[in-house]
């Protein structure tokens, strides 16, 4: 096998490197900067150059190497290149080629072009390693423009009722897409410190994003009148939210496709805005690679793998330590709005 599934992560023995390892290693190729794929402790990191400032913000000073998409690097004769995954800014698929065999590790991806993350690029290969976060037919997303319009309409309704609109969205990926959705309203957007940190890292790297204002302990409560606030999941229900009263909460997550999840989260509004591929996207991505064998990682891997086998595509499940950023945020929230971790 060109890539082995080990207790440290996906390992290419011929090139002596790992892809998104979850235990410390010497050489790590990183698909993107979410915490379940990019962990602290590796001796050397290789990623897309737009991922580097995000890794720096989250992991601090390390040995980083940034490259562009489709810019080959050779490790012990193994050809490695990165290709757009469309998941978040800088997210990449990893193509590994050695002695005529090609494997592609997708990391996390979505097939709808969100306008800021780079359009997903199907990469022909012999073996494809795919996520399956939303690998069930029930998960079929509405087009992004439709969801963006729903977002703006909700804000406008809250404004007329003199309520603040608090969006719960992951600080890296979802928050940046929300800013683009809200831009036409031409209203100030206030953000939690975790969102601010990622915003600053991206803007400093040259990414064009709408301006935001950081919420600090000194920000007067009177500032928030029919205001727009973006906060990570860890802030939801915390004392930090008190100063926004009266407010409504809108949760942005693919899990909101299932109505019961909205009730369980005590959300006032739900937007099924996901940075992962839906069921049709997963199927189209797999088929576009032309892969003879497919390994399915985190998510509904059992159902998705079984369906691929039924369609005549050899598939097997693989256990990894990926997954979770749709539901959790690694930053903790305190009364003074400081955040734990690197972000």
TrEMBL record:
Residues 320-343 are annotated as: Disordered. Its EC number is 3.1.-.-. One of its GO terms (molecular function) is RNA endonuclease activity. Keywords: Exonuclease, Hydrolase, Ligase, Nuclease. Residues 334-343 have a biased composition (Low complexity). InterPro entries: MBL (IPR050698), RibonucZ/Hydroxyglut_hydro (IPR036866), Xnuc_lig_assoc (IPR026360). Residues 323-333 have a biased composition (Acidic residues). NCBIfam families: Xnuc_lig_assoc (TIGR04122). This is Ligase-associated DNA damage response exonuclease.
């Amino acid at each position: 096998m060109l890539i082995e599934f080990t207790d440290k992560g996906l390992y290419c023995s011929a090139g002596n490197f790992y892809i998104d390892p979850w235990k410390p290693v010497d050489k790590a190729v990183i698909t993107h900067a979410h915490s379940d794929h990019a962990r602290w402790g590796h001796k050397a990191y290789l990623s897309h150059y737009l991922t580097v400032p995000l890794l720096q913000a989250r992991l601090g000073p390390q040995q980083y190497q940034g490259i562009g998409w489709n810019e080959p690097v050779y490790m012990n004769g193994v050809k490695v290149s990165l290709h757009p995954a469309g998941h978040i800014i800088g997210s990449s698929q990893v193509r590994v080629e050695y002695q005529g065999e090609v494997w592609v590790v997708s990391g996390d991806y979505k097939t709808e072009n969100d306008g800021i993350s780079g359009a997903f690029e199907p990469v022909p290969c012999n073996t494809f390693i795919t996520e399956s976060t939303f690998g069930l037919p029930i998960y079929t997303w509405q087009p992004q423009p439709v969801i963006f319009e729903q977002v703006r309409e909700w804000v406008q309704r809250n404004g007329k009722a003199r309520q603040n609109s608090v969006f719960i969205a992951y600080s890296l990926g979802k928050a940046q897409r929300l800013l683009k959705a809200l831009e036409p309203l031409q209203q100030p957007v206030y953000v939690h410190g975790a969102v601010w940190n990622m915003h600053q890292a991206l803007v400093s790297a040259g990414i064009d994003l709408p301006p935001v204002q950081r919420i600090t302990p000194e920000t007067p409560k009177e500032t928030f009148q029919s205001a727009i606030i973006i906060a990570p999941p860890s802030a939801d229900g915390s004392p930090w939210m008190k100063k926004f009263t009266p407010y409504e909460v809108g949760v942005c997550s693919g899990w909101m496709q299932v109505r019961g999840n909205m009730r369980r989260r005590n959300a006032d509004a739900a937007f099924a805005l996901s940075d992962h591929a839906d069921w049709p996207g997963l199927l189209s991505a797999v088929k576009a690679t032309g892969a003879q064998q497919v390994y399915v990682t985190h998510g509904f891997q059992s159902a998705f793998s079984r369906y691929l086998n039924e369609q005549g595509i050899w598939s097997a499940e693989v256990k990894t330590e990926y997954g979770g950023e749709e539901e959790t945020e690694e930053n903790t929230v305190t009364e003074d709005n400081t955040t734990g971790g690197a972000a």
